[in-house]
Fold these 3 entries.
Entry 1:
Amino acid sequence: MTNMEIGEHRDILGIQVAACGWTPALERLEQFVDSEGAPRVVNFLNAHNANLAMRDLDYRNLLTKCEVLPDGLGVDIASRTFYGTSFPANLNGTDLVPALLVHIERPLRVALIGGRPDILKRAAENFASATPWHTFHAVSDGYFDRSDSAAILDRLAEIDPDITLVAMGSPTQETWIDTHIRQGHGRLVMGVGALFDFVSGAVPRAPQLFRSLRAEWLWRLVLEPSRLWRRYIVGNPVFLWHVLRYKLKSASRGSRITA
């Protein structure tokens, strides 16, 4: 997998995260879609998967091989801690992917992998309703045997998608992409987390106030406290501890974090 970078980058806990506005991001992603050769892989960094990367070296290493975009308040706090300024935009997949599909006016083939079967079907239908000039292929739900992906990869090769969206949650989606995706499986491949849940209507989006504060996690916690309490109530303080420790280590080495 190869990568053309999206502008300036900032070091967030040892992971290079793109720092740019919406328009440059959309334009660069469109270039990825139009490129030939190996897939351009894009993933997102938020407090949750940053915590995963801090305790899983293999996961951290695979994030260094792809383009990483900022998602949420946590990485914004880290950016302000290390650089004195927030990221120019919250480029989360839930907003970015639909915006990209609207932005690209030529017809595309888009493959969808992940979610429950009913959610996958509704997400494909709603994507097609919103951007009918593209063709959406519901390749597989997210409950297949990870050790036997041959049929899914054959289907991707048959479709030859311009964009492949993989929604299995972190770290599963990023690991599966890194392990299995090769040329012919998508020109732009993105790990998109809960995107299909939102697009299908299975999970409501947060009100605009939460989104503007980059605190959609809080809305999700209110909706699903039993499932998400550990990720946010425990995970967010752990993430802030990692940020503080990284800052102190940099200071003790006499080094300066640079973009």
Entry 2:
Amino acid sequence: MLVPLAGALAALVTVALGACTMATAPEQPLIVVTTNILGDVITHIVGEEAEVVTLMRPGADPHSFEISASQAARIQSADLLVSNGLGLEEGLQQHLDSAAAAGVAVFAAGEAVDTIDYAAEDSTGGGVDPHFWTDPTQMITVVHAAGDAIAAAVDGVDGQQIRRNANAYASELEQLDAQMASAFSVIDMSERNLVTNHHVFGYLAERFDFTIIGAVIPGGSTLAAPSASDLRELVRAIERAGVSTIFADSSQPDRLMQVLAEEASLRVTVVPLFTESLTEAGGDADSYIAMMRANTIRITTGLGPTGPGNDK
């Protein structure tokens, strides 16, 4: 009887010790990120130092996506909330404001960049453009600022490791920027004209010397709608510039073609780009760097010497 009893006691001690170990194991700090582009960037910076939760699913629209009650609760319990900070997440703003009011630490990426405004003649009447990620040099600035913010605001992370991760990822973005500049160099300056479904590429245009001819949807939000006069003016601008390739968000390239076709008999090629969201894993834009490389190839193919409009 003594041997089984001793064995039973030993088993109970083992279970108790295991339960104690599980109960005292520290939870990782939690960083909640609004958009999936920023989510990918922050994940590279954080590495294994914290849990990163991205609210926006692949393929969603950052202007209009909404979150569940459980996701809203995670925002409130976050050690750090990372957002665009320039009004991009229009459907999420009340949750961002609520978290800030509750004392959640916030890193607004847009506050770290050298912002540009929409053109004054655009129907937005100007205003700050939140699409800074289309310029990799702006994202490099964000990476360093985010690394400093995470190291300072999130207890339990190794600040030195965070900064090492940020520096390593920033080096990758420097290479990306050089690759994009080299790729775009084959496009003649007279052909560097961008027409898109809405105003997303202002930062890219400024960095790589493109001209924004116009956009089907006025302003920088997909929640806006084009008027008949907007479309007529865009058609005139396309005809004046001799544009033969226009670019649309990969989720709705047909919509752009149909809208323009209804306004005038334009003979243009529509090329889909990845503008405001990453794809599911395995897609052509399942990371920020993959997205930028894919867009570079498509823009260069559309506007370069072998593009559809350059056989004239």
Entry 3:
Amino acid sequence: MGSLFLPILVNFTKDDMKPGSKSWLSASKNIREALENHGFFIATYDKLSDMLHESIFGQADELFALPTESKIKNINEKPFHGYVGQIPIVPLHEGLGIDYATTLEGVESFTNIMWPNGNTSFCETSLSFAKVVAELEKIVIRILFESYGIEKHAESHIESTTYLLRYLKYRAPQEGESAMAFPPHSDKSFITILYQNHISGLEVQTRDGEWINVVFPPSSFVVMAGDACQAWSNNKVLSAIHRVTLSENKKDTRYTMALFSFLSKMVQVPEELVDDEHPLQFKPFRHNDLLHFYAVDPKRKTENILRDFCGTEISTT
């Protein structure tokens, strides 16, 4: 298990959290520092009610209780967007994905596959959760872009963003089983936002290779940069390598709700982030192409995937 680590915490619940305010400018500094140095930060955000908190994890129980033959119908041509489970090397993990999760059509499509007769409660809860977390992601994007002086690009970025909501389950390891619930990896998203129940287990690797336990308050969010964000930032932002490790003495199931943002337009480094001191590291690419490139060989060394996929000759990733 990793060592204890207290990450940067950003409070998005302040009344004066508006562009130009003291809270906004403070958040801008902290978010940029956190994503450049650690690849993630913790967010407190009061838009998710206690009722929705209880409901989303109740729906997770109901979803994963479905028979396997139902869950494997969660198929998507985009890699890692559909059902993942029943894998011998990661027996503790199971996950399902709702593509276009901030749209009624996206959530209804998934719901009707899982429950052919419909499930209004699941549909309403999932859509409400995705919309709340997506609003947090949009604030993060606006602040991050502003921190680099390129806020003029934020709205077009947001308009080109789609969201994948994944329900993730990690059962407690049985005697003799590995505590590794999910192996080390970096996300292929632009931004990932994680929301978990009371069971911890997330570990993040520091730049010097040390694994740290991420300790964060109840009902808070982990906001993490993905590989696409690192490429977009011209290697300024760190795409955090992370894993899930569970303790054998924890018998409860760990549920995590993960919202991943993806771009429907080309991912490319803004010209403002390129100069003589910071030459261009990555060529423009389509986000889905990155997913497919990784899917061909998921064992690619995480630290090299961007260089291998879209790096320029001077890329040092």
